[in-house]
Amino acid sequence: MKFVSTRGRAPSLSFADTVLTGLASDGGLYVPESLPRFSRDEIAEMAGLDYRELAFRIMWPFVSEDLSEDEMRGIIDRAYANFRHKAIAPLVQTDHNEWVMELFQGPTLAFKDFALQFLGQLFDLLLKKRGEKVVVLGATSGDTGSAAIEGCRHCENIDIFILHPHNRVSEVQRKQMTTVLSDNVYNIALEGNFDDCQNMVKASFADQSFLPDGRRLVAVNSINWARIMAQIVYYFHAALSLGGPHRPVNFSVPTGNFGDIFAGYLARGMGLPINQLVIATNSNDILHRCISANDHSPKPLVHSLSPSMDIMVSSNFERLLFDLYDRNGEAVADLLRDRSASLKLDDGALDKARTLFSSERVGDERTVEVIREVFESTGYLLDPHTAIGLEAARCARKSRAEPMVCLATAHPAKFTEAVDKALPGTEVPLPHHMQDLLQREERMQVLQNDLSAVHDFISRELG
Predict the structure, then answer these.
(1) Is the per-residue pLDDT at 223 higher than 90?
(2) Lowest CB count within 10 Å: 85, 256, 385, 388, which one?
(3) What are the b/e assignments for 178-213, b being 16+ CB within 10 Å?
(4) Is 393 in contact with 278 (CB distance < 8 Å)?
(5) Angle (CA) 312 317 323, round 5°
(6) 22: pLDDT confidence band, cut at 50, 70 and 90?
(7) Within 13 Å and on the Cβ side, how many CA atoms surround 357?
(8) Average pLDDT of the chain?
(9) Angle between helices 225-241 and 112-130 (to 10 degrees)
(10) Environment class of 239 (CB within 10 Å of its CB; exposed 0-12, middle 13-18, buried 19+)
(11) d(CA 33, CA 222)
């Protein structure tokens, strides 16, 4: 299988080269030349498979030319060995035909573990086979960083640098990153917002001259295709658990960077019956405005109770645009020539998007109310991102007859500020393996929002 750039000017690559390249040379993102598609009968035969076997079945068509079956199964087994629940992604019912899929059972309590535990194992295998050592550079609005560090900390052939916006992630999120004292892990607290971090990563990939000879960057953010690929699996897992493919199962996804919900779009393209995907945003609502009003204009970023969604430039939206514009890379490049400018979709592209996607915006005040209401009615505690997803599902849902699954993206213990506003005095203990997290020693470097300062730091640490 070959992978092509969304901007049409970069060479097509194999799966392994795509994973180790990240951002395409023309600034685009890699996507498969064509999607594998399962028949209804083939999907039905997957019912009852455990999560690991399902992951192998879904991902194998993408990787079969670069990995052996034993290598792929080994990567999957190691990736999900440290998840705390045997179901890997358990479902919890919150109302009639309404479900929450808990994607926070991994080692860092966030959905990013599904992709990044897999990606770390994949990196390690590919780099050992090639005898290569690389530098992972990533930006995080909260959860990607800790999951990436956990996935890469034991990799002998990786040095990992993670940028997070200084004082704009929760204390638990920060500590999960900065208390990992491995020699190959470097945390940078950037005096800016997440978009500044993300822009810095993209600029670094475009010009890697600051790196020592023989080293290159690889991407750990959701611009890396392997992350999106791994997330497709849990859409199949949820649907098969709730009667798919014999009936459609719909999803609501709290999202800022569009990667998690794009995986649902791909699952549908691979044959999974999905009639509705709900884009759930907080006050940083560029995706909601785009779908509801064709207004994709950047606005000043707002600091919210759901910091992992405090994003105004949604990188993975480009992958959807590529399909909406009939895979015309030139058209996508023209649309995205100036990311600071307003973007409007043409009527055909907007109509195509609206056949599948709905959207809702949920502010902090309503987020807090939803956490309280759901807890009082069910005894189930939501984190603020999942509360936004559930409220968006309830507001935008088109069919009560079809199951609606909200993706629970993080454990509530990571966001005690929001929980305390909703339920004052409620203690949310961290899982046993993190009981002492807040007392652990930290190590990070606070840097100005300046590309040369970041490059100097990276170059110096790599010697």
Answers:
(1) no
(2) 85
(3) bbbeeebbbbbbbebbbbbbbbbbbebbeeeebbee
(4) yes
(5) 160
(6) confident
(7) 32
(8) 95
(9) 130
(10) buried
(11) 18
Name the most confidently modeled range: 23-32, 141-150, 362-371.
Answer: 362-371
In terms of Cα–Cα distance, which of 156, 80, 161 is closest to 125?
A: 156
Instruction: Supply the pTM of this predicted model.
Output: 0.93
Tens of pLDDT, residues 404-423: 999 999 999 999 999 999 99
40-108+224-418 matches 113-222+437-462 in fold: yes
User: How is domain 40-108+224-418 classified at the CATH fold level?
Assistant: Rossmann fold (3.40.50)
d(CA 231, CA 222): 10
Catalytic residues, by residue number, are 112
| Top-tier CATH class for 113-222+437-462 | alpha beta
Helices (H), 80-193: 112-130, 143-152, 171-178
Q: Return the minimum-mean-pLDDT range out of 15-24, 255-264, 267-276.
A: 15-24
Distances from the Cα of 66 to the Cαs of 17, 19, 62, 129, 267, in angstroms?
A: 9, 11, 9, 11, 22
Domain limits, the chain: 40-108+224-418, 113-222+437-462
